[in-house]
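Homework help board

Subject: predicted structure for assignment chain

Our instructor gave us this sequence and asked us to write out the predicted structure in token form, then describe one feature. I got the tokens but I'm not sure how to describe them. Can anyone check?
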Amino acid sequence: MTSNKTSRRDWMIGTGSVLAAARLPMNSALGFGQPSTPAQAATAPSADDRGRQRRMKWWHEARFGMFIHWGLYSVIGRHEWVMENEGIPVSEYAPLAKQFKPKPFPAREWAKIARETGMRYMVMTTKHHEGFCHFDTKTTDYCSPKQGPGRDLVREYVEAARFEGIRVGFYYSLMDWHHPDGARCATDEAARKRFVEYIHTQIRELLTNYGKIDVLWYDVSWPLDAAGWESERMNKMVFELQPDIIVNNRNKLTGDFSTPEQQITADKEGRAARVTPGTIC
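My token output:
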């Protein structure tokens, strides 16, 4: 495995925290006898804002949760960016999928620890940048039931979290180093359509096959913008499938909460920020 001296990581940091333009409720038309002032009208929450406040209530109260990062990189015991940082080609990295054989039901231990330490929610990687899916999917054989684990690791995690009374969150990387259209989609419209459909289908599977999901944590929107990802359509599908879910801002839309990378900053739109130790180190 040869070292790659150039890495997208250097310039990709923070791409998921790009925010959409701020949106304010429109003022009511002014008229005689109007009971509220223009200033009051400007700050009145819209129906969308009220819905978001309702969905976010538990999140503001929970404050403390567990984030689980794991994948094929666990086999070689190095950072989840190892495929990119060390320039490992797909042909060499993909065989790790057969070697990846987690012990039975590790999520039961994680969820027990979460509950005993006062955590209120968990988020687990369903697919990291390497492209390997921890869930059963019809889109690819590069997934845990059809490779080394021989079982659906996301289902194990969901069941374990629910058994301990912990809210369930899914991390999902939009960027995909394994898919042949993962980079090509930036310059080839046919590839973009194929890849976006692949991603949307996997998100639909995740939000259809595992019951109520509380958090969807997108990550790394490279190499597309919100229009390229069809993020408005993406989020519309998400909320149709899971009306009470909350989503972050890393599909290039504002989202319900922000996730700053390697820094802690105030969100320009007043969104709650949630960081993990790994994102602020």
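Reply (TA_rk): Your tokens look well-formed. For the description, you could write something like this. The chain has one domain: 46-280. That's the kind of observation they're looking for.
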